[in-house]
Write a structure and sequence with these properties.
6% of the residues lie in helices and 56% in strands. The protein has 745 residues and is mainly β. The strands form 7 sheets. It has a 24-stranded antiparallel β-sheet that branches. The longest helix has 19 residues.
């Protein structure tokens, strides 16, 4: 199908109702309460010099958005591939992104910044609104908002009271249950409690033992307390807990001769486990001339990833990566609050501290010892000592890797806007400092024998201990101009984005393997030196030049948004698989890259129907990138789709008399591609499109949805990578369907 489509349809709620939280409608959306409304982006993003998309609670439910990854393709140039596990929260936006380490899109939940991207993917329930801001937002949001920000706001007990529940079931033995209660005992106090459950046997089978390759169980709990202490002072505290127990990483071997992928087939476990807790407290004061907001959070994460890292039915090697992270954040914000004045300003400060303990042992098994260690060593030994070959006594041995990863940072920022006639001129700047450290303790040992030494075995022990520290300081400016007229506005912005640097912990097992090989050769009197591997990577930064418009026409029934952008990036962070039979991967900095593109979205609200479409185009290429082996200048940046499309529509049949109040029919289509998987652009996924739909029946406070995704069973790949010289892919999910019953009391 041609990716350049005409405007089609959208799912958006139609008739607003203050008593029904599912009926909040665009463009007549109920405002967020004064406690939850963000101060940084005050008001509707449609009236600001920002490219963004808002999702109401009703649209989130109608589109079947259950996790962060379901936002993929619903907003132009945003792609969140569904692969791996809930640890794998990869984000690509406007040609910017990376598979691992630092995220490219900041995530805020009820004004709390989420520091670790492992916590990005969680079950969505009672999400009041989600705003996705595209383009760098680093002046106001700081680190890791180089591509934009997702602002998520949960339902407030001060703006909604009642009981909500839903239960759904679909193919793959997929079950979802959510129950929540919202109470406001007094005019000044409200509380809520919500719980969620999700389980699925998944859609892929491990051919090795017939088990479910992507089975998952998640649980969530969220409690919220809100106090309106006076007309000016508010306090809001949210405590959330999430649990994930998942078989993941359903990767299939890609045959180099046929180019076709087989089935998932591995003999050792692939799974992911996580418990997480986040507590955020917001104190807000709304005075006649200024507003003040303090947001304090504590974040805890305990997760464990287990991988059969050869992803084959052989005993090569396995990886376990266990992390425990504690983090605290503090942000204070002042903002002017007199709309009659021409000058508006905001200023703030932000600080964080986090400490991560990571244990990442790699276990080498018999096939791995034979192929990755003995074959390479014996080729070298045979050349200089004919007739001798190395043997290892153990069937398996462990390379242990322990890390302590503390980090802290602080920032000051300011933004001013001047209203002059139809113009709004804005300028801002942020000074952002970050310090990171790594303390590592790695050890490996095995017993070896050479015939020349007799029958005895000798013990080879290799250890690596050390410390590394890095500090980053960034100045992040922003300027914009917006011209307002009756039908909307035109704007232009120049902003600088920033993504933090870090350490390549996943390459340390390779480094220790190489050192063990060097030590072994040294014992035999040979000098063998491997290439030095960089254990850290630098921050990524970019300049974004953008122009756009927001238009409202036909008595607010038609909304159009358009933007064009050019992004120049330095030190773009790229995930690299070292050549040969490497067991690890690392983050590398490309010299320079540029991304240019355009975005267009439109929505029309009719009497009984909604139409909506969006299209994003991105051409992202390396300007300078030489890894000392290949020059990738002019090549396309991996994993960034060239086109993203969404089109959908809903029609409602109102039933004036009878058991049913309304029947709604919805259809949507989402497309992405093409995208390249590697720097040399030798592997790619072509453009593909997925059909979805829903039919819902509403009777009083009850609603039944019968839904489907990828209705035509389209086959496509959502991920490609290399391990030990082999290529693997994860296939996209097949046809999905099910039913969900909801009610509000």
């Amino acid at each position: 199908m041609n990716p350049i489509l005409p405007f089609l349809f959208s799912i958006l709620p139609l008739t607003p109702s203050g008593s029904d939280a599912d009926s909040v409608a665009f463009p007549h959306e109920l405002p967020l309460s004064e406690v939850t409304a963000p101060l940084k982006q005050k008001g509707d993003i449609f009236h600001q010099p920002i490219a963004g998309t808002s999702f109401t609670l009703s649209r989130i439910q109608g589109e079947g958005i259950s996790t962060q990854k379901d936002f993929s393709l619903l907003t132009p140039n945003l792609y969140l591939p569904d692969y791996g596990s809930r640890m794998t929260s990869s984000i690509y936006i406007r040609g910017i992104g990376a598979r691992m380490e630092q995220p490219s899109l900041g995530l805020y939940i009820d004004n709390v910044p989420i520091l670790n991207k492992n916590n990005y993917e969680f079950d969505f329930y009672d999400i009041r609104r989600a705003d996705i801001l595209r383009g760098p937002q680093s002046t106001l949001y700081g680190r890791n908002s180089i591509g934009g920000v997702i602002n998520i706001f949960t339902l407030s007990p001060l703006e909604y009271q009642g009981v909500r529940a839903s239960a759904g079931y679909g193919n793959g033995n997929t079950a979802d249950v959510v129950a929540s209660v919202y109470r406001r005992p007094t005019e000044k106090f409200g509380w809520s409690l919500a719980i969620s459950h999700h389980s699925s046997d998944g859609f892929f089978t491990n051919e090795y033992d017939g088990s479910h390759a992507d089975k998952i169980l998640t649980e969530g709990v969220r409690g919220r307390l809100q106090w309106k202490l006076s007309d000016k002072l508010f306090v809001d505290n949210t405590l959330s807990f999430n649990y994930v127990d998942q078989k993941g990483f359903a990767y299939a071997y890609l045959d180099p001769l046929t180019g076709h992928a087989g089935n998932v087939n591995h003999n050792d476990p692939c799974k992911y486990y996580r418990t997480g807790l986040i507590n955020g407290t917001t104190v807000r004061y709304d005075g006649p001339r200024y507003q003040f907001q303090s947001v304090t959070s504590y974040q805890f994460m305990d997760d464990r990833m287990t991988l059969d890292q050869d992803f084959l039915p052989v005993s090569m090697f396995t990886l376990v990566q266990a992390q425990k992270e504690h983090a605290v954040t503090q942000e204070v914000l002042f903002r002017s609050n007199d709309d009659s004045r021409r000058w508006h300003w905001l200023a703030g400060a932000f600080a964080f501290y986090k400490h991560n303990r990571m244990n990442a042992p790699v276990t080498f098994k018999e096939d791995g010892i034979e192929q990755l260690i003995l074959e390479n060593a014996n080729k070298y030994i045979e050349e200089f000592l004919p007739g001798n070959s190395l043997t290892v006594e153990e069937d398996m041995f462990v390379i242990s890797s322990r890390f302590k990863l503390p980090a802290y940072g602080f920032a000051l920022f300011h933004q001013s806007s001047l209203e002059t006639g139809r113009w709004r001129l804005t300028a801002g700047v942020r000074a952002d400092f970050e310090h990171i450290a790594m303390r590592f303790d790695n050890y490996g040992a095995f017993s070896y024998n050479l015939p020349m030494d007799g029958p005895q075995y000798n013990l080879l022990e290799t250890a690596m201990h050390g410390n590394e520290t890095h500090s980053f300081f960034e100045i992040l400016p922003k300027v914009s101009a917006m011209y307002r007229f009756r039908a909307g506005n035109l704007y232009a912005t120049v902003t600088r984005g920033y993504k933090a640097g870090g350490f390549n912990t996943q390459i340390f097992s390779d480094i220790l393997q190489n050192k063990m090989r060097e030590d072994l050769m040294a014992v035999m009197g040979f000098n063998s030196k491997s290439n030095t591997t960089k254990t850290s990577y630098e921050p990524e930064s970019n300049w974004n030049f953008e122009a756009g418009t927001h238009l409202v026409m036909m008595e607010s029934r038609l909304r159009i948004e358009a933007a064009a952008f050019y992004i120049h990036s330095r030190n773009q962070q790229i995930t690299v698989f070292p050549p040969g039979q490497s067991t690890g991967r690392l983050m590398s900095n490309a010299g320079k890259s540029r991304s240019r593109g355009a975005e267009l979205s439109a929505g029309y609200t009719g009497r009984n129907f909604i139409l909506d479409a969006s299209y994003g185009f991105t051409d992202a290429r390396f300007i300078e990138y030489n890894d000392n082996q290949n020059d990738y200048k002019g090549h396309k940046v991996p994993y960034a789709p060239r086109n993203t499309l969404y089109a959908g529509g809903e029609y409602r049949f109102e039933i004036p008399k009878g058991f049913l109040d309304r029947i709604s029919l919805r259809v949507d289509w989402r497309g992405a591609g093409s995208m390249y998987w590697n720097e040399d652009n030798s592997a790619k996924q072509g453009f593909y499109g997925l059909w979805g739909g829903d039919i819902s029946f509403k009777a009083g406070n009850y609603r039944l949805d019968i839904w489907g995704k990828n209705l035509t069973g389209k086959r496509y790949d959502t991920f490609w990578f290399k391990s030990i010289g082999n290529s693997f892919v994860q296939k996209g999910k097949p046809r999905q369907y099910g039913a969900t019953l909801r009610f509000n009391l």
